[in-house]
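User: Could you check the structure of this?
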Amino acid sequence: MEISMYQKLLMLPIFNGLTTRELTQIISQIHLDFNQYADGETLASQDDRCDKIIYVLNGKVECEYRDPENRFVLTELMDQPFIIEPSHLYGMSQRYEHSYITLEPVDTVAVSKRDFSNVMLNYHIVKTNILNMLCARIQSLTKIVRECEPETVVEKIIQFLRRNLATQKGQKTLYINMEILADLIQETRINVSFALRDLKQQGLIDQPHRGQILIPDIQNLITHYNTYK
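Assistant: Sure, the predicted structure tokens are below.
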């Protein structure tokens, strides 16, 4: 394996703090499944069983969530590198919550659940890193759930987005009918229209097409949301 590949692996959050020697020891005991994907290929599909750790090493990937009742679709651009839903490797639901589609050529490396459990978790640093990742995810979701109920229409829209996101940063796109959005946040269609117009005028969102809401930077929108608190 090339030195550059070691460096890419060491950049992954789960390997943070490992030395090259320790990483070499791990690699010698597990099977690494390297793959290259072209533009438009699916790395993992929503509701498929999560039975391995998939590391995205480079390239642009879109995370997509489709509402089970077909009311909306929410897509997100993912930062690189990242691990696909490690929180679903164990627990009550061991299926992916989202689909992951490549937007350009992408390199990945996967490790089976067996190798992850029997080898990687024997290393204290790996175990600590995965626990930190899971705890951060739980704390983020808990914070959102415990927030006070929103009062304004803008607050309701932003809270709806936050509760359905995989990550709280980056570009997001919501595909939804305005009447459905109004119903989901318990508001009128006209109030939702006015709120979206207000956000668009402030440069926080765009509406390139009917039924499409583009959020260039969700952090800016969250900051805006916090000004209401």
